[in-house]
Each structure stands twice: as C-alpha cells, then as structure tokens.
Amino acid sequence: MRSVWRVLLGLILAATTAHARGGEPLQGLTPAEIAEYDEGFAAFRAHLSKDQGLGPTFNGARCYLCHRGPALGGQSNKTVTRFGRVDGGVFDPLTSLGGSLLEEKAITPDCAEVVPASANVVIKRNAPSALGDGLVEAIPDQQIMDRATAELAENPAMAGRVHLVTGVSDGLVHVGRFGWKAQGALLVDVVGEAMLNELGITNALFPAENAPNGNVGLLAQCDSVPDPEDAALGFLDKLTNLVRFLSPVPRPKHMNDVALYGETLFHQIGCGFCHYAEYTSVSSNPAIDGKTVDLYSDLLLHDIGTGDGIVQGDAQGNEFRTPPLWVVRGAHPYLHDGRVRTVLDAIDAHHGQADDVRNAFFALSAYDQKAILRFLNSR
Question: In the predicted model, is pLDDT for residue 1 greater than 90?
C-alpha cells in the first residue's frame, strides 16, 4: 500500500513542480524502484538490537539519528569522534587500538571503547548529508579530473586535487567524492562501511567485526551473532538503494532579485571556483541520467585552514573535500565539526587556499554580503 502511495505522490509532484523535495525519491523512478526506496526507508528508520547484530560497539542504533536534517537522509548536529597520533609529522590512525573512529556506545559497559592515551589528535565530525548522492555517484570520474586540470591552469594556488580511491566492491580505482575527505567513491562501499563502523553490522563488503579498541579477546566475549550479520537483514542493498534514489533538496524555482544578484557576486569574487556547479550525471538509469548536478562542489581536496589532522587514504590532515552547498538552509551547524552556526561565520573561517576569496567577500558592502548570503540560503 505504501508503494502505491509513493507512486501517486510522485505523479502529483511531477505535475506540480520541476523538482522532487529533499528526502523524497527522485522523479522518474519505476514502480519497482519506488518499492526499493520504500524498503530502504524502512531499513533507514529501523531501530536495531544486539540480537540483530548491533555492536558490540557502535555510534547509533539506526541511520536516521545522524541523517535527518533538513530532510530524511540529510545531516544533524550529532558528531562522531576520530583520533590518531602524529609523530614527526607522520599520522598513525592507531588501527590496532580501534582507530581512527571511536565507537562511543556499546551493548554492555564491558565492551566499551575509549580514546587511547597514546592519541594526540582527537577531533569531532558531523555526519555529511546523503541527499542527492545518487546523482553525485553518477558524475563520471573524467568530469571531476577535468575540473582539477582546469583549476590548476586557471589558478594553481587555489587548485584542488583529486582523491583516488580503490573501490571495496569492485577493486577498481575511482575518483573519490563522498565523505569529508572524499574517501568514498561508490555508494555501496560507503553504506557498507557505515554499517560496520556506525552500527556495528558486518556485511558482505565488511565481514570482520571491529574489536573494541582492537581487543580481539574482548570481541569474542561481547559479540555472539554470526557474521556477516547483514545476511539476515539485507540492509546493504536496501540502504544503498535508498541513498541512490534520494533527491537533493531542490533549489527554488524562482529566486528573488536579491538572491539572483547574490549568485552573480558569488561567482564574481571567486566562490564558484571551488563551489562548482556544472557537473552532469551519466547513468543507465533514466531517473539519474543527464541531470545537472548543481551541488556547488568541485569534489576536490583543498586546504582552507580548517583541517583536523586526520589522514584518510591520500587525503592529508589539512585537506577536506569542498563541501556541497545544495544543502545550506536548515543544515547548521557548519564545517566538518559544527564549530560555527551561521553561514557568515563559515565564510569567515575560510583561510589557506580560500584566503583571497574570503577577503574579497568581506571587502564587499554590507548589502552585497547579504545578497550572497540570501543566495546561499536559497540553496
């Protein structure tokens, strides 16, 4: 019955607006895909128990806790902790001690993790939004690589760089695009890793349980559900389908004159150099193919002075992927750790490769600054 309702809702939306609402399925999905979306929706909201394989260490009992604003699949003000150790400029994720992600909850106190005493880098991270990620996944690698080449030719001092990663599910090298460090390239990989690290649910891609602080003996005492635990749940496929079919939060069909003026200024002072908006999706799925992916991110790594010291893959401690801006309104707090609550403060935090653009923004008149903020809050 719910699938029928989704189909009817999709027809109504198609007749009344050019965009789906964020947290709703993409327009143009088949009835079978709508049904898959619904299954993913149920898995996303499901509250897991230890008998189903939750834990033994985890950060939440359901996905929805960290991905719900401004719509289903978005973000929240909840954070996770990462840690590691830097000696002589070399980062050690302390993998043998459970790093670099701390699972802050446990099914029993005896199984709990703590930040190791040897860690000298301890930071917080917000969960990034998954809205529109199916479109992002469908951006061909070459488009992102071409953007990196164009930036290098136009302004080497501001140019970002591609993060190449090896897919867990296919063993091939891809251009990373998901996560704060662009450390993920394929949605199924990102979902599988999140299931293991955030829920403690082993699956086909990540079949080995995380031992609390790396203590294998303690794991044997705490974990009694046979691996992979997802064999009985089927969440890997369900959640991947959900994320792939989630629509982005749409841009308003009509912006007022102030916001339109702000958009022009946004590009004039150089914000659009990194917050790039001209990718196009390529997919065998008609609902995903040929869409303008105006996420306002080049999906490249930059150093803008907000680094957290954590190295992930080839992304260094001072680098982050350019955050997409298609979820600005309702998405505070901002930056990777939620250190600021307003867009203006987030702009003020830009330094490093973004210094010139930041300074150009604050050199504008108060009216022009407000026009750019009006544009950004229309995203």
Answer: no
